[in-house]
Each structure stands twice: as structure tokens, then as C-alpha cells.
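Appendix B, record 7
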Amino acid sequence: MNQYSSTRVESPQGFTHTGPGHIYVHYGTPPQDSDKPAFRQMAEDQFSWLRRVLVAPSNMGKARSTLADTGTVILDGAPGSGRISAARVLLREYHQDSGVFHELLPGEEGELSLHDPALVETGDQLLLDLSTADDQQWRAARSHLPALRKTVHDQQAHLVVVMPHDGPLDPDLQYYRVEIEPPPGSHVLRRHLRMHGVPYEQYSRPDVTVTEFLSEPRPMREIADFADLVRRARERALPDEGFAQWCATAKSARNDRRKEVAELVARLPEAPQRALLITVSMLHGAHADVIHWAAQSLLRTLGSPSDGLPLLQHKDLAERLKEISADTGPAGHVRFVELDYDSAVRAHFWDHMPDLRPHLGSWAADVVDLNDPHVTPAVREDLLARMAGQYLRTGRGDGLASFAEEWSSASASRGRLEAAVQALTCGLNDPAHGRAFRERIYHWCAYRRLTGKFAQVLVQVCSDVLAASHPDQALLRLYYLARLERDTARALQALGDLVASSRRLHRRLLNRLAQSALSPPDLGIFLLACDPVLLTDPADAPRALVEENVVQRALTTCWHAVLAKSPRATWQPYSKRWLQCAADTGHRGALLLDVLVSAAERCTEGRGAVFAALYASAREAERTASGGSTCATEITELLLHKISVAQGLGPATPPPASARGTQP
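C-alpha cells (predicted):
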């Protein structure tokens, strides 16, 4: 069972990785060519995996019943007890079409306050992970919990709070507190082994290594990592080796190999030897052809001179691999003989030869661009994840971010752009650096003049990665990117797709626009966001967005700016669509008309011309209305009546439905 750090998922599909270690993201069809982008598709698989490997901690049943009865449960438990995983599984059981999984991150840029009712939509599943909060953060959160709980209750949502272990809790919240304890470590290990496909008859027998490993309490993450090492040892084992050998190999891989690697490097003083050692560690598992080419490329990147020997006098790859304790498997893939040796080699060179770091970034970009059938997407992604892991392990997130910018030049290949996306994804999903990367992306989007194709990279990161974990922040960043777009509409389209997936985000964007100066870029964003179908569709909510007073005010403000500042040719197609939708949505259609007429009424100059243009749009909409000409005609007459009332030319009571015949 994995112990996850904080993340937030707004859509039913989303990418999440919150444990330590690497992130492996396999790119297939580009996101714009698929209904489920690669990052978002992975979230379902990860949720499914978490549910399968979770061994319920003690009191899980009580937590489940408390959540079902009250809509809220506050989980307490020691670090490593599985409390975060338990919280996610509890909330996942309430997954439904009308709500989203949503982790609350109070205090971050773009996040609403916990007491803001706009934070919760109908049926949401909310996780508030305060397991690592300090005293001040926990005290502030406790003060807002009553208001948050009321909103959750009103919206028929569900809230799980993970509190700091043994932290203080107000008396009125004690009823919701459930303390969980970790399940037996042997049960957790066996569950993971079974899910990894290890036969039951293998792990059901007592094993000395396993007994020793479980002789002391272990965090759930540590047990999961050991099970994964056993899996990998099994995959590399000889046919006659069994479970005992797999576990012994896994145990050996857990040892600190820093001294061992340092001694190996000292025995290999020549540049080609060390280049090969670095290459195998960074491209571990890649084909021998790729290893050979990449090692030569690294030497060129570092400016190492050629040895001048004739080609046939060079050592062959098999001999050179033997020198560094690596070999080539039957399929031609190169690996170190010892399990997990590659990570120790990477750490050694990164820590003890820091001048190599910028060169490794340039070299990695060259490898990503290599046109070779053995340089598969998985090879590229593993390389980027391993390099990002070193930056993040040593607290050098700024260096990783800088490389992402460099890989996004105007001439960057698709491979380098994908590498830039993955680099930022690694930073976003790292428990220690995620917040810093979210802030860095905010400053890029809001304040930087972006060059090359970096804006394109940020759009993909925000729409496919950040939106799946922190949608409110993605909304704000895509909004800034959309305002700066000139020759493309990637950010604008991504912003539109995001708000179309969430009523809460749709409402929030409309309010932001209404409170802004409504510059020309803002007006373009509004016209995209004012889809009347989304505004009039209540889905599973008690009422549609257009029936909310705050939304009506925002729509009126924005439409007024559009009518007053934009040419008629710009806004008429959108007003026509509103009028067509008004004919198909009953009483909500009348609200659409109210918004348009109220917006036109605010125009101090050319008000009559605007009213006439709206009426002309209604007449044109009649010809293409899906609900038939009768309904469309009635909408036209109703619009004319509302215009007359706004001009003080008619009674407030609308006329009964009749055949059209009135002219303006």
C-alpha cells in the first residue's frame, strides 16, 4: 500500500504520482488527438491499483461508516500507517458523475479559502491532507472546518481530513475523528506480491529474508518498495532461482552501495569507461545499440578527445560492459549485474562530479532526438525521469525548470517538447518540490514573456497535468496564457475544455472575467466560455448555472463589454447561438434573453443599434433553430417584448405566444 503525498484530481481521469522515486509517463497519441490524454488516462489506472493493493488498516470500517453517516471523517494515524491511501480509497468509493475528486490546498496561488462556498460542487469528493501541517496551519484549518463541513453537507459532498498525528482537535469535531493503525506488514507484502503476479505457492512459505525485513515496523511505502524489488528480481532471475533468491536479491539492492560504486569509479579512470558507466545508469535497460551511441555522444558533449586507435583495435562493447559490471541480455538490452545498481551510479556521479550536470542535460536532449528504432518512448521517458530524479533528490528544482525552458526553443523537436513537459511533470508531482513548481509555473504564465515553444509546453502541462491535480490553479494559469496568445489558440481551447468539465470552474472563470478590466483578450475568452448549452444544462445539480444570480450578473457584465467594445461581426454568431439555445431550453431560455437585453440596455452609445442587431440575430436564428420555427418565433417575440420594456415602450407582462407578425 502506497503512502501518497498531496495532490488534487478534478476530473474522473487524471495523472497522479505522489510517492518518492521516478515518474514514468508513456506518451502515445498526442493529447489533442485523443479523448483521454496520456496523463489523465493514467489516473484511473493508479486509483484502480491503489484499491487493489490496499490492505484496510484497523478502523477502516468505522471511518467508512462515519463518512457515510455525516459526510465527513477526520483520519488520525502515525506516519506510514496508510492514512493517505485510506483517505483516497474512502473518497473513491463515492466517485460519481456529478462530482469530482478534489484535494484542497489552502493558501496556494489560485486556491479558494476553505470557508468559501464556491469551493465545493454537488457530489464532490474532497481530501484535505494536513498530515504534515505545522501548528499554525492546523489551527487555521480547524477554524474553517465548520464552514467547510456545512458546505459539504449542503452540496451532498464527502470530505476526508487527514490531521497531524496526535494534533489537537476541537471538542465539536471529536465525533468525526477516527484513528487508524497499520495492518500487519506480512499482509501488506503478500497483497503487493500477489498483485505483482508472484505465485502464491512462492510467497506462502516462510522465508528468512522476509522474516528479517518484517521483524520491525515498516512504513507502508517501504513494504511496497520491497515488494517491487522482489518483482524486479524475479524478472531478472535465472530459471532455477526461486522466491528465496528473489528476496535475497531485493535485500541486497536495499543496501547502501555508495562505497562500492566509489571504488568502481576509482578503478575506471579513463573517460570512455566512465562515459559508458554513466550512460548505462541513465539508460538502464536500453538496447546495446543505444548504449553505444549514447556513450559516444556523451564523450563528444564533454569534449573528450578521440583515442586515435583504429576501429578494430577498440575494445568491443561486451568487454567494456564487463569492466563496469554490466552485461547484455538475450534481447540485447543492457543492465547492471546487480539489481538497482544503476541508481547508486547515478547518485555517485551527480553528487561527486557536479560539473557534469549541465552537460548531462544537453546530452539527454540529444538522446531524446535520436532517430533509432530502439529509442522507444519508454526509453526517452525513463531517461528524463532518472535525470529529473537527480535534480529533485538534491534540491535542484530550479535547474530542472531551466532545462525545460531550454528544451522548448523555437526549433525544438516534438521529442524535446515532450521531454520539457515530462521534466515539469516530475517537478509538479514531487512531494517536496510540487508547490515550488506550481508557483514557478504561475510566474511563467502571469509575468514572463515566453519565447520559443515554451508557451505550448506550459499549456500542455497545465491542461493535462496540473488540471488533473490542481484544477483551480490550472484555470488561473491557462487564463493568463490565453490572454497572451497571438498566433495560436491552444491555451484558449484548453481553458474552454477545462471549464466545460466543471460547473465550479466555469462559474469561477466568469466571475474573474466580470471583475477584470475586460480587455480584448478577455472578451475573446468570455465568448468561448459563454456556451449557452453549458449554462442552461443543470446536469445533476438542482439548477443550471444561468439560474444563479451571481452567474447572471457576471454574464451581463461581460456581454455588455462585448456589445460595447467589439464589432457586431465578432459577437453576432455568439448571440445567435444564445438565441437558438433559448428556443430549446424552456424557462432558462428566458434567462438568456434577460442577460442579453440587460447587457444591451447598459450601452450608453448606440443602444438602439445594439437592440436592433440582437433582434436581427433572433430572426436569423429562427431559420436554423432545432426546436422548430414555432418555438423560435416565440423566442423572437419574447426578445422583442423585453427590448420594448427596456426602452419603456411596452407593458412588463409578456404577450401570449402567437404567430409572428410584429416588426421592430
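Remarks on this record: Residues 618 and 636 are 6 Å apart (CA to CA). Residues 1-42, 658-664 have pLDDT under 50 and may be disordered.
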